[in-house]
Amino acid sequence: MEGTYGILSLLPVFVVIVTAIITKRAVEPLILGTLVGYAIIAKEGFIVAYLDSLYTELGESAYYVVIFGLFGIFIHMLDKANAVSGFTRLGLKFANTKKKAGFLTWVMGIIFFLDNYFSVLAAGVSNRAIADKNKMSREMFAFSINSVASATCVLVPLSLWGVFMSGQVEMSLGLEAGEGLAEIIKALPFTLFAWVLLIFVLLYQFRIIKPFGNMKKSELRAEQEGMVLPPDLAAEHEEEEEKKPTSVWNFLIPMVCLIAVTLITQELMYGLIVGIVLCYILYIPQKLIKFGEAFDAIFRGFEEMFVVTAIVISAFVLQNCNDELGLAPYVVNSVVDIISGGSLPVIAFIIMMILGFVTGSFWGMAAVCFPIMLPLAESLDANLYVTIGAVIAGAAAGSSTCFFGDSVTLSCSISQIRNNDFLRTGLPMVVPPIIVTIILYLIFGFVM
């Protein structure tokens, strides 16, 4: 097809997935897949083309470097001062069983709806120790916080995702500024994957549907052996000497202020900065952390998030390569001629999910799909709101499955597991919700 490299555009993604499964690593497969892509585009000049893209992305991704670094500093400060211990002690009064711990993690992820990063951070940091005490495997924990974050942020119109999706609807349908929000709200009941995924996470946690495959093995390991981490990672995160529990306020004050500032400013960076400053103000006078250690946390925080940042930036470089190969137009144009009004929602969901999974670019792929799918819905007399919901649901599906995407990467970092651990355990757990969603979109597409 003109402007694309046809089926060759799928090769880099295929290389990434296969190599990741074989090597059980994330950064190297992303780099290899991207090099393969630029070899297709630039032939013998592929290394120069790759480096040009990398240099460009390093400049454009400065925001993510700072955000992940601030995440690292905040988490490191909480951990060093044992600040979460008070909240853990309080939480264990309710969450004294594995099912209750799972429910608490689910609720906390929903409460912090503003942004998927925000949800993962808040639910992850506050509940990890509670999950450990109740012998929940870190793989299940990572799957839960990532799934809830991916679903919740697209179901709340006031989230950052909601604002972005509203803008895309306005541009695609030629609406006035502000009118897209009303359309998004009408489409929320049809954002089916997000609803289904939230329900499935609860069903898994309550063991109404039992974990299966590698996740079942991980859960049995945690329950029977008390080993919440994969065996080869357990030595890297050996239990430190038991620290004296601290006041619950040492966690609540920085976290509540972080939430408040983020909500008011609509900027997570400002919330994190305020949260970190409050950690310094609270912990140093109480001697929970030494003065020198507090400032060492700045470097340690960035250091501990280096792999996370490397994975995300490598994924962005791969996305640039996919854009140059014309991956998204190739996939969409391959099926657009065979779409009917009734089949449009399910096809829109599947395309958006696939593109999100293979590129790790959920907002970027939404920007590709909305201008194509919404006018197509109007011309085919398909239900517009089911179609809008399907595209948004596809973004959530991509976010919850892409093992090298930013949401999964952050969830794995907070859970202290590798992205490939999620690939082995968490990804299969998303398959049943996807199947249910596809069936529902087939029904809704032809009935409504």
From TrEMBL:
Query: What are the GO cellular component annotations?
Result: plasma membrane
Where does this protein chiefly localize? membrane
Query: Any stretches that span the bilayer, and where are they?
Result: 6-23, 30-50, 62-81, 101-120, 140-164, 184-206, 252-285, 297-318, 338-370, 382-406, 426-447
Tell me which Pfam families the record gives. Answer: Na_H_antiporter
Spell out the subcellular localization from the entry.
Answer: Cell membrane
Key words, A-Z? Cell membrane, Membrane, Transmembrane, Transmembrane helix
Query: What kind of membrane protein is this, topologically?
Result: Multi-pass membrane protein
Signal peptide location: none
Please name the InterPro entries in this protein's record: Na/H_Antiport_NhaC-like_C (IPR018461)
What are the residue boundaries of the Na+/H+ antiporter NhaC-like C-terminal domain, all occurrences included?
181-446
Q: Does the keyword Zinc-finger apply?
A: no
Q: Protein name, please?
A: Na+/H+ antiporter NhaC-like C-terminal domain-containing protein
